[in-house]
Design brief:
Largest sheet: 5 strands, antiparallel
Radius of gyration: 55 Å
Helix content: 40-55%
Strand order of the largest sheet: 2-1-5-4-3
Order of helices and strands: HHEEHEEEHHHHEHHEEHEEHHEEEH
Number of strands: 13
Strand content: 15-25%
Structural class: alpha+beta
């Protein structure tokens, strides 16, 4: 930046000096030439007056030594009468412009260049009373010669200006750039020296905020990842240790024959729990990594609700829990297996964490912006201080009860991620010992209920 400023200033100084020199030379030249022409005309009038009053005796005097002008007199037939420069006696005066013009109008003038434009001569001719023509001429340097003669002075002046300008601009450039070099990019808007930089500094500040936000998000993601890894290790380790322990006891023949079925059943239950945990982890990984790549299709939510209710009828029957399903068909664009997992996990939790002889109500109804899926039960409920964390991975309200029921702690996390994927909102109402009500409100503009489809068709 500094080099560019110095280069531009140097070019500007050179152009300024040249243009100033050129313009001043032109002005002075034309003023000088005008004064010279006026002097020649006055001198011609003086000589004409002397010739008309004194006669040709005036020419006999050393007139050529009294003036630097060239004086020439010719008669009416073009013959030379007098010339103060006798070296040019072979000129054809009758053919010259100024003589011809003076013979016709009484006066005439011309400007002639010679010696490759290095000199110019102004001639002024006037007709005398006796018919002779008097011409006075003065030779001066041309404007080109005048300008060339001033080039050494111009060069010296330009060098001096460049030196002074360089030193001054070096100081000014350093003074201008210093605030930019000392900008606090961490807090760019704290002290804005140049208002022209404010838009740029605003963008820097905005980017700083975005970077800080992204760093915080990355840190949070790293913490979640570490916590998730630790939880996964712990959750996988527990059933594996149980399976390994039971299998080792059986291998060493430390189990009575009549107890083998019981130990086999425990191994089977732990293996089933391990399988369920791995499946949930895989499902969450898919939702995390392929949020925008999962294939969408038209899904009938009410059909999924009925499938879930049928598949959970047996576990509910074992605890004498009634599952009531009601609603109307509603179709949305979504991922079928994710929606099924969401509904299944919510109804499954309502059955698992319910009391003997309780009830579960499953409803699918039309809301203002789309379908609303509701699961309500009269089970153990969730304490208020626990409600904000139940959708976290591996978080359990009652860890001992969760172990007993075979929960993985990932079901509600899958529900949360699935809702985000389908632009849905989750609503939770629960009281400890009274029951829980969870609603999923779909707000996707592509959602259509069965009634809307019939109206559109």
């Amino acid at each position: 930046m500094r080099q560019k400023i110095m280069t531009h200033v140097t070019v500007l100084v050179i152009l300024s000096v040249l243009l100033t020199y050129l313009s001043s030379s032109l002005v002075l030249y034309y003023k000088y030439r005008g004064d010279m022409e006026a002097d020649v005309m006055k001198e011609a009038e003086y000589i004409r007056y002397a010739l008309e009053n004194v006669g040709e005796e005036y020419l006999a005097q050393d007139l050529g030594q009294l003036t630097t002008s060239r004086i020439t007199v010719i008669d009416s037939r073009g013959r030379l009468v007098y010339d103060s420069n006798p070296d040019n006696t072979e000129e054809k005066y009758e053919e010259m412009e100024e003589f011809q013009e003076a013979g016709k109008k009484g006066t005439g003038q011309s400007l002639k260049f010679s010696r490759i434009l290095s000199q110019q001569t102004f001639y002024y001719a006037v007709e005398l009373e006796n018919g002779d023509i008097l011409r006075v001429g003065k030779t001066v340097d041309s404007i080109f010669c005048t300008m060339l003669s001033c080039f050494p002075l111009l060069g010296l002046m330009m060098v001096l200006i460049l030196i002074v300008g360089f030193l001054y601009m070096k100081h000014q450039t350093k003074k201008l750039i210093q605030p930019i070099n000392s900008l606090d990019l961490e807090n760019p808007l704290k002290n804005v020296v140049y208002e022209e930089l404010r838009p740029l500094l605003k963008r820097v500040d905005q980017q700083n905020r975005q970077i800080a936000s992204h760093v915080e998000e990355l840190k949070q993601a790293e913490r979640v990842r570490e916590e998730f890894s630790a939880n996964v290790s712990h959750e996988l380790k527990t059933p594996l240790m149980s399976i390994s322990g039971y299998a080792e006891i059986m291998k060493n023949g430390m189990v009575r024959q009549e107890d083998v079925p019981e130990f086999a059943a425990r191994i089977y239950d732990e293996a089933a729990r391990l399988t369920s945990l791995v499946q949930d982890i895989i499902e969450l990984s898919k939702l995390d990594e392929k949020n925008g790549e999962l294939p969408l299709e038209t899904v009938d939510l009410y059909e999924l609700v009925r499938d879930v209710s049928r598949n959970l009828a047996l576990p509910a029957g074992k605890k004498n829990i009634s599952v009531q399903t009601e609603g109307c068909p509603a179709k949305i664009r979504g991922v079928r297996h994710v929606l099924y997992e969401m509904f299944y996990n919510l109804v499954d939790n309502a059955v698992k964490y319910n009391r003997e002889g309780g009830w579960v109500k499953v409803r699918l109804e039309s809301g203002d912006k789309g379908p609303v899926f509701t699961v309500e039960d009269n089970g153990i409920g969730i304490a208020r201080e626990e409600q904000d964390r139940i959708f976290e991975r591996f978080y359990r309200v009652d860890k001992s009860h969760s172990r007993k029921t075979g929960g993985t702690g990932l079901g509600l996390s899958i529900v949360k991620h699935g809702a985000a994927l389908h632009h849905a909102k989750i609503s939770l109402e629960s009281r400890l010992g009274e029951g829980t009500k969870i609603r999923i409100i779909f707000t996707d503009p592509e959602v259509k209920t069965d009634t809307e489809e019939r109206e559109s068709s």
